[in-house]
Specification:
Elements (H helix, E strand, L loop, with lengths): L2 E2 L4 E2 L8 E8 L2 E8 L5 E3 L10 E3 L5 E6 L7 E6 L6 E2 L8 E7 L6 E7 L2 E7 L6 E7 L3 E5 L5 E5 L8 E5 L5 E4 L6 E7 L14 E7 L2 E7 L6 E8 L3 E6 L4 E8 L2 E8 L15 E2 L6 E7 L5 E7 L2 E8 L5 E3 L12 E6 L6 E6 L7 E7 L13 H8 L3 E6 L8 H5 L7 H16 L3 E11 L1 H12 L6 E5 L5 H7 L2 H11 L7 H7 L12 E6 L7 H13 L4 E6 L8 H21 L11
Parallel strand pairs: 32-33, 32-34, 34-35, 35-36, 36-37
Antiparallel strand pairs: 1-3, 2-3, 3-4, 4-5, 6-7, 7-8, 8-9, 10-11, 11-12, 12-13, 14-15, 15-16, 16-17, 18-19, 19-20, 20-21, 22-23, 23-24, 24-25, 26-27, 27-28, 28-29, 30-31, 31-33
Helix pairs in contact: 5-8
Length: 602
């Protein structure tokens, strides 16, 4: 029944044992699916045309919650009976908004949701299916990380380096306790110990945290009245996350390093196994080399994950409590894919890591730099249909984890001196130079292609380094950074303020230097720009401003607009975008090369 795109969410209470919810691709769109583990029967819960990407199951397994947000991801949580029936609002009286988390107490007697409305985050609690009561509201972006098992406290996550990095809200009184972050100590709220208050009336369990400090990531805990306690034996040199493992004070940890994933079972209180790579304590699970896209624990201790590599399609893996891969279903699996290798490029500030996927035939190949967005994410040793489509069309595909990417440590992620955009395209240029010098890539046929912040970097590279790039494709990009700051969401403005060190009014020169619009006159083209009329993240107005600059300077370009929000979730739409890009790249290779004169606007 469709391909799973997320690991299951399990009903945690004893009464709900044997039930779970999954997200699976049904007819090209993600939908919520009810799974009876005892019988193996699955039932499609939703049939939304734009798909459903967020779903949870109540602890007793009686109902499944899913976010009905449409293409713009703006709507409400709905609640459907596990065995079928009409959906109803999860909580009555909650305004429509952006989804910012949902959670339940241990038994499922209390539900909590957080929604984003205008410039605020608002939290509501109530009996599932009953009327919600607002218990907390704040300006800006907050995310509901978890509900304490006894249902008395909500853990909310804010900006990890901000004064409200973690907020604990008492649902009875609305009183809050705040844990502050800073640039020297970033904090992420993860989840409460699900067993920490069993039989302890009025007690609040430990909250699990991740702390970024001293150029590393460390597991930590917090209890009321005490400080944040770092567990130094659980320290990792690059991005990591953690969750409680069933039974006892153990954790399941996912560690990301150089585009690949590790899973470990670790003891919270002691380094039981004497440490593993990098001094981080725990027992590493026997995971094939590649990427874990999502992971969860069943009540029996089995670990379920969605895994892939560059040479293997995404498959669900199940690891039993003894650490053996107990089941790797046949859906997906190994397939004939283009060869991918690691490329490391030396630089004064550290080595730049890229994945190079080569087409058939002998080098030098025409190449496409497929640039990831974020920037706080990274390209992985994992399946990506765009890579395969480009390589099958004859292009070498380069995916570079430039400065600002996660997975290489805090210094790599944050240490680019406020040179937003410029530092990143310098990394792309350095990798390009190495591949051209090595005879792997044809220097006169190298295009740059990105989505969202990756599309922004593509436009910036085309203007700042016009001699290097033969064509550019930018999907849902930032074209005018100053105008985008004014028009985008409050959460993304917070990200920009953190990256730049202030607002465009405070730092106009910094924002101008980072804006593709500043360099529009230098673009040699050609460019393909794909925008969305309802995009809140990279709004249409700022992209139209950039396109106007291209027209004024007679830069050859094509523009395609689609209805809807920032990212179309349906596979058919993603395929259409790739078809447009492939057609454009093929035409530009035969008609326009690096250094050719500007033509008329398309």
């Amino acid at each position: 029944m469709g391909t799973p795109s997320s690991s299951p969410g399990f009903a945690a209470a004893a009464a709900g044992g044997g039930r779970a919810v999954e997200t699976r691709l049904i007819d090209g769109a993600a939908q919520a699916v009810a799974w009876d583990l005892r019988s193996g029967h699955r039932r499609v819960v939703t049939r939304r045309p734009h798909g459903v990407h967020l779903s949870e199951i109540e602890p007793d397994g009686s109902h499944i919650w899913w976010f009905d947000g449409g293409d713009a991801d703006y709507g409400q949580w709905r609640r459907s009976p596990f065995h079928g029936g009409d959906p109803r609002p999860g909580l009555l009286g909650v305004p429509l908004g952006k989804p910012r988390g949902v959670g339940f107490d241990r038994e499922g007697a209390l539900a909590a949701v957080c929604v984003g409305t205008a410039h605020r985050s608002r939290c509501f609690v109530g009996s599932p299916g009953g009327t919600g009561r607002e218990v907390h509201a704040a300006e800006g972006h907050r995310w509901l990380a978890d509900v304490s098992p006894d249902g008395t406290v909500l853990a909310l996550a804010g900006a990890p380096d901000g004064p409200d990095a973690v907020v604990l809200c008492d649902v009875r009184t609305g009183a809050t306790t705040t844990l502050a972050g800073s640039r020297e100590r970033r904090l992420w709220a993860l989840e409460f110990d699900p067993d920490g208050t069993a039989g302890m009336e009025g007690a609040v369990p430990q909250l699990l945290l991740m702390v970024e400090r001293d150029a590393a990531f460390t597991v930590a805990t917090w209890s009321p009245g005490g400080p944040v306690r770092c567990r130094d034996h659980l320290t990792f040199p690059s991005t990591a996350s953690a969750g409680w493992y069933p039974g006892g004070r153990r954790l399941l940890i996912q560690h990301e390093s150089a585009g690949r994933s590790r899973l470990l079972i670790a003891d919270l209180d002691r380094d039981a196994d004497g440490g593993v790579d990098g001094g981080a304590g725990g027992r590493e699970l026997p995971l094939p080399e590649g990427t874990v896209h999502d992971v969860s624990c069943a009540p029996d201790g089995s670990i379920h994950c969605i895994w892939s590599s560059a040479s293997s399609a995404a498959v669900p893996l199940v690891i039993d409590p003894d650490g053996n891969i107990a089941r790797a279903p046949a859906e997906g699996g190994q397939s004939q894919r283009s060869a991918t290798r690691d490329v490391w490029t030396a630089a004064d500030y550290g080595d730049i890591h890229s994945f190079l996927t080569s087409p058939s035939g002998d080098p030098p190949w025409p190449a496409v730099f497929l640039v990831h967005g974020g920037p706080a994410t990274h390209d992985r040793d994992g399946v990506d249909p765009r890579v395969e489509a480009l390589s099958q069309a004859g292009y070498a595909v380069v995916r570079t984890n430039y400065r600002g990417s996660t997975g290489y440590g805090p210094a790599w992620q944050h240490g680019f001196g406020r040179r937003v955009g410029l530092a990143q395209i310098e990394d792309l240029a350095a990798v390009r130079a190495q591949l051209v010098d090595q005879g792997l890539v044809a220097g006169d046929r190298v295009a740059v292609f990105g989505y969202s912040w990756g599309g922004y970097l593509a436009l910036l590279a085309m203007g700042v380094q016009p001699e290097l790039w033969s064509a550019g494709v930018a999907v849902y990009p930032i074209g005018d950074y100053v105008r985008c700051f004014a028009e985008t969401t409050p959460a993304l403005r917070e990200v920009d303020v953190a990256m730049f060190g202030g607002t465009p009014q405070q730092l106009p020169d910094r924002y101008a230097a980072a804006s593709p619009a500043t360099y529009a006159a230098h673009v040699r083209g050609p460019l393909l720009l794909i925008g969305a009329t309802g995009d809140e993240r990279c709004p249409a107005g700022q992209l139209e401003s950039y396109i106007g600059a291209l027209r004024r300077h007679a830069v050859p370009h094509q523009t395609v607009w689609r209805a809807g929000g920032h990212a179309g979730p349906h596979l058919d739409e993603q395929s259409r975008i790739m078809s447009l890009a492939l057609g454009f790249l093929g035409a530009s290779a035969s008609g326009v090369t690096v250094g050719s004169p500007k033509g008329g606007a398309a």
